[in-house]
Amino acid sequence: MSETKVQTRPDTSDGPRHVAIIMDGNGRWAQMRGRPRLFGHHAGAKRIREIVEACPDHGVKYLTIFAFSTENWKRTQTEVAGLMALFRRYIQREARDLFQRGVRVRFIGDRIKLDEKLVTMMDDLELMTAGNDRVHLTIALNYGGRDEVTRAAKRLAYEIEMGRLSHKDVDAETLASFLDTHFLPDPDLVIRTSGEARISNFLLWQSAYAEYEFIDTLWPDFTRAEFARVLSLYGTRERRFGAVKA
Ligand code: IPE
Ligand code: IPE
Ligand code: MG
C-alpha cells in the first residue's frame, strides 16, 4: 500500500491511483422513467466509457467496476439473462474502442457460473488488450468478496495438501497472491452511487484502508464532472493507515 503511494506520478500525486466503483441505481433510474429495469442497465453501461476516458486526466491508473455480484443471481431470470446478454453486447461493441484507447481490460470474479460464450469473449478481450497500459480497467463479474477469499483459501489449502507450500509460509501477502486481484494495487478510493452506504461484498480484503465516497446520484446519471468532483474530495482526506501523523 505505502509502496503504491510513492510511485512517480507528477502533477496528480495527491489523487487516488486506484478507484473502485459500485455502479448502483440502474433499476431505480429506469423505474423513475416507468421503464423496465434492463433499460436502466443499458443506460448504465453507456456511462462506463466516459468515466474510463476521464481516468488518465486525473492520474487514475486503475479503475475497477462492480458489474454483477455473486448475490445478483437472486434477481428474476429475466433480469439476470438480460444482464448476461448486456455483458456480451458490451464486450462486442466496446472491445475495439477499449483496445485503441490503450485500455487494459481484466475480469475478476468466478467464471464457473458464467456461460461459455461470455467467458470466451472475456478471455479474448483480456488477451487483446494485454499489451495496453494507459488505463487498467477491471470488471468484477460474478464477483463477491467472501467468495473470492473462500476460493483463495481453497486453492491455498490445495497447495499445502500437495506439499508445494507450508502453512508456515502463509501470511497476508501469500493469501493476497491467491486472490482474483493479485495483479492490482489496493483501491485508494471506493465510490458507491445511488445513496446506499454499504459495500455489498465488494473488495472486502482489498479495501481495508480505502477511502469511501457514497453519493446520491444514480449510476446512469454519473458524469465525468461528478467523477472529477468526487476525486477532488479524496484530496482533502488524510490517510493514516493506523499511524499517528507526526
Ligand atoms: C446496479 O444497479 C447494477 C447491478 C447490480 C447489476 P441496480 O440494478 O442494483 O439498481 P437499483 O439498486 O435496483 O436501483
Ligand atoms: C451491488 O449492488 C452490486 C453491483 C453494483 C453490481 P446491489 O444493488 O446488488 O447491492 P444491494 O443488494 O443493494 O446490497
Ligand atoms: Mg442496487
Q: Name the structural class.
A: alpha/beta
Helix/strand order, N-terminal first: HEHHEHEHEHHEEH
CATH structural fold name: Undecaprenyl pyrophosphate synthetase
Strand order of the largest sheet: 3-4-2-1-5-6
- For the termini, the CA-CA separation is 19 Å
Q: How many strands, what sense, and barrel or not for the largest sheet?
A: 6 strands, parallel
> Do you know the CATH architecture?
3-Layer(aba) Sandwich
Short description:
The protein is of the alpha/beta class.
Question: What is the strand and helix layout of this fold?
Answer:
Layout: H1 2-5, E1 18-22, H2 26-31, H3 37-54, E2 62-69, H4 77-100, E3 103-108, H5 116-128, E4 135-143, H6 145-161, H7 172-177, E5 189-192, E6 211-214, H8 224-234
Parallel strand pairs: 1-2, 1-5, 2-4, 3-4, 5-6
The structure holds 3-methylbut-3-enyl trihydrogen diphosphate (IPE) (2 copies) and magnesium ion (MG).
Describe the 3D structure.
- This protein is an alpha/beta fold.
- It has one domain (18-143, 186-234): Decaprenyl diphosphate synthase-like (Undecaprenyl pyrophosphate synthetase).
- Helices cover 40% and strands 15% of the residues.
- It has 8 helices and 6 strands; from the N terminus they run H-E-H-H-E-H-E-H-E-H-H-E-E-H.
- It has helices at residues 2-5, 26-31, 37-54, 77-100, 116-128, 145-161, 172-177, 224-234; strands at residues 18-22, 62-69, 103-108, 135-143, 189-192, 211-214.
- Strands 3-4-2-1-5-6 form a 6-stranded parallel sheet, sandwiched between helices.
- Strand 3 (103-108), helix 5 and strand 4 (135-143) form a beta-alpha-beta unit.
- Helix 3 (37-54) runs parallel beside helix 4 (77-100) and helix 4 (77-100) packs parallel to helix 5 (116-128).
- The radius of gyration is 18 Å and the shape is globular.
- The model is unreliable at 1-12 (pLDDT under 50).
- It binds 3-methylbut-3-enyl trihydrogen diphosphate (IPE) (2 copies) and magnesium ion (MG).
- Residues 22-24, 66-69, 72, 196, 198, 200 line the site of one 3-methylbut-3-enyl trihydrogen diphosphate.
